[in-house]
Amino acid sequence: MIWHVSAPVLDNYIVGQIDRAAAASIETHLTACSDCRSLVPSHGAWLESSWTGVADRVEPPPIGWLESVFVGLGVKSHIARVVLVTPALRLAWLAAVVIAVVFALTAASSGVDEVFGLFLAAAPLIPVAGVALAYGPILDPGHELAMASPIDKFSLLMLRSVAVVVSSVVMLVAAQLIAPSVAGAGAWLLPALALSSITLALATRLTPIVAGAGVSAAWVALMVLTALGGEGPDFAFGGTAQAVYVVLAAVAVAVVVAKRSSFNHRGGPL
Amino acid sequence: MLVMTDAELVAAVADGNSAALRLLHERHAPWLAARLSKRCGDRSIVDEVIQDTFVSVWKSARKYRGEGEVGAWLWSIAIRRLVDVFRRSRFSFPERPSWFRSAEEEVLLGVGYGNLGDALNRLSPELLAVVQATILDGLSTREAALFLGIPAGTVKTRLMRAKRILREQLT
After folding, report:
1. How many alpha carbons fall within 13 Å on the CB side of residue A115?
2. Model ipTM?
3. Fewer Cβ atoms within 10 Å of its own Cβ: the N or the C terminal residue of chain B?
């Protein structure tokens, strides 16, 4: 290089106070000279916002470790993502479930029947709440992502509900392993599955939150009436009752499968 | 720490290194934006073109063969992205780019430095715009036509006329 652009000349170029021939010389020089390029003033805020715009289009969104595990197991990445962004599958939710159940079981091991009954009554509501919150615009920051993903609503709700029910059940079982063992503490499992299925069946007509709230209210009412009627825990959790839950779950699943088209209907509840 | 050259940064970008792209952006976005501003008065379009440029660098860094200046390569991408914007919005641009008029004013002022500069500055604004787009900015006839909003044939005849005038003035 024989010459370099002086700072005042560069300033004149930038504000346009220079003739075309000189501007052309400066531009040709800047193309090749990194020293003179570095003289061009750069505004930090502008550079930052410009880079943010580039980065948004260049860097793929970060993939969570759990998602990469799922993808590694052969699950398609878009399915893994819409399932994993389910509100009820957040770590905070899962941790809260474990802590609540550990406390409940610890209390139940005190031998006081009422406390144990309270645990049995409350446990089935956990997966119901999970299903109710599995899908919908209110609590789901990923709802728009879910709407835009190439999965129909029915499959999405099924995938998420299965994920939620499975993880809730795993959490409840894990909590039972952590807490002192109590005889009959697994009696909540079939009611939980029945209530979750009924919630899903109602979700063919109602929004999942309304369905979940209704099912929970009915269950709580049943528990209160049982207690007021002086019935023992066998009434709601005994062998006959467990058989009823199996039947209810089967009917609810049949309804869900039969009504699956209503999930994807334009005027559907979701 | 060893400072990486631009060519090394482009090679790293080709390997998918976004930190290298950020360094390239930091080094080159300011002067590219300044130069684009001379060709497009709308600052928001310049900003958009700068972003488009570095997104294209990300996608096409493999195509850089290490020949010639990285700066020249980046400029060739940037000016073509600007042409793309003009092409997309051709019918919503009722007036010519704003620099066109300022070039005219400059020529009317008749400032001169040396022979070639003097000759260039005395070209009529239409001819100067064609010289600038084709010879200095490196656009093809077709791209220059899109950029200036005139037919490709007109670009060719104006360029021939400009060359003839320059030759006459320099001999």
Report:
1. 13
2. 0.75
3. N
